[in-house]
Design a protein that fits this description.
Layout lengths: L2 H23 L9 H5 L2 H9 L4 H12 L2 E5 L2 E4 L2 H7 L7 E2 L1 H4 L14 H11 L5 H27 L4 E2 H18 L14 H4 L1 H10 L8 H16 L7 H9 L13 H31 L2 H14 L9 H4 L3 H14 L8 E2 L5 E3 L2 E3 L4 E3 L2 H5 L21 H7 L13 H18 E5 L9 E4 L1 E4 L4 E6 L5
Parallel strand pairs: 2-8
Antiparallel strand pairs: 1-2, 3-5, 4-12, 5-8, 6-7, 9-12, 10-11
Helix pairs in contact: 8-9, 8-20, 9-14, 12-14, 14-17, 14-20
The protein binds protoporphyrin IX containing FE (HEM).
The site of protoporphyrin IX containing FE (HEM) has 25 residues, from helix 7, helix 14 and helix 20.
Length: 476
Amino acid sequence: MTLIELFILIVPLFLIQRVIYRLWFHPLARFPGPKLAASTSLYAAYFNLVRGGQYTMKLPELHRKYGPIVRTYPNELHIHDKEAYDQVFSIGTSFDKYRPFYDHPFGEGSHFNMPDLKTSKSRRDMFAPYLSKATVRKMEPLIRETLLHFIEILLQAGKEGQVINLTKGYHSFTTDAFLNYGWRRPFHAMEYTNFQFPSIAYMNDFLIGAVLIRTFHPLIRNIFSKCRQLVLDVMRDPDSENTLFSNLLARHSKDSGMTDCSPLSVNDLTAETIVFLVGGEESTANTLIHGTFHILNNDAIKSHLLQELYENIPDINALPDSLALEKLPYLTAVIKESLRFTHGPPGRLPRVVPAAGARLCGRDIPPNTIVSMSHYVYHNDEKIFPNPEAFMPERWMGDDSHYLDKHLISFSKGSRGCIGINLAYAELYLAFAYIFRVLDLDLHETQAEDLEWRDFYAPITKGQLKVTACGRNSVH
Ligand code: HEM
């Protein structure tokens, strides 16, 4: 028998043996789910690669058929159960992030890529003071400054009769807002004609590339060199001003005399910059995009929001701060519904069951099993959110709104939940309020189908949000 003949014989035998093991002898063999998903990861790959980011959309159907626990990969259980969710995504959780999923080359050296709580916590503790509610409040004028400039650009585009690509516009705004907040050094993405700043123009390719082939679109290398340059600039010339990174560098540089932490290398700082930039701009922009579309697409929602804004902001030369805006019930409801619709990352966030095993949904789960949960499944649970596919801010205004708040998980929860939540809320309150109070926007050739998305860790839409804009007269 030649080597090739031996190979042809052995490979199928090996594959058959593996499928038999996975279906009948694997520690997860007794859990329900499609047999094909239990046998091979190709089942998920079909939805994610061939049909493009669609396994997430299949999950509600699988849960309806198989119950709260479904075996969605040979070594992974997908869970739809809020108690189990609270157990896995808790403060001090013992469920680590699943390393291969989070090993994005763009974040190597950052806390985002660190699977375990201990290492990531010490890094998160360094950043947390700069993103606390109190700091965000203090630095809010920087967000306002970026936002007012963005509104000026939209007004000018409106005056010139341009159709505005608000998908790219919002990504440019959140990019500059975060860089202004954290570094006082925006990329001036908003200044590019038609918001064609390269990192934003190619962000989708970047995300799809990072998820599918774990590599970069060559054009997106731009973002890496820019972030590295940002770090080097701050190191060379740390301003006396209170910026996130200049403070960090001052505290954590080799000369700082601090003993509670090791200094961060330029590579680590670059990775952190990228992770903050992508994390900070992407989800916030998506929430603005989906929220804006649904407000403009529904006259009742739009006029309810405008009425509240006119009553509470009579003078556009005296725009209130986010503390005042947080008290507006309909604006708050619009923001929550936009977050529910966008999900943050909509798909599976895989975690590893600790060595002692776990008990979830009343069942023993073996150690090292990957358990994952998807925001899309939770936010579309019709027992919690009736008519989940409808954009209905009113659902957040009833007596049960505190109960619903517990089920809004767009920022995730626990020790690995979003570290930028306070900044994100400040941006959302200010942007929704100021943009709708100052500008009269109309949809331009944008339908609901344009905002249909595929899951590439971030929800990537089929089309773009396009609008026309003009300034509002002061009378509603
Ligand atoms: C609407 C806006 C936002 C949403 C919905 C959101 C959502 C989330 C979610 C769900 C996670 C956990 C992801 C996972 O476990 O895989 C996360 C993590 C993270 N977010 Fe946000 N985010 C938003 C805005 C921001 C902003 C403005 C920043 C910048 C300060 C930021 C920075 C981060 C970082 C650095 C992490 C990683 C935390 C870790 O790994 O421990 N996010 N975010």
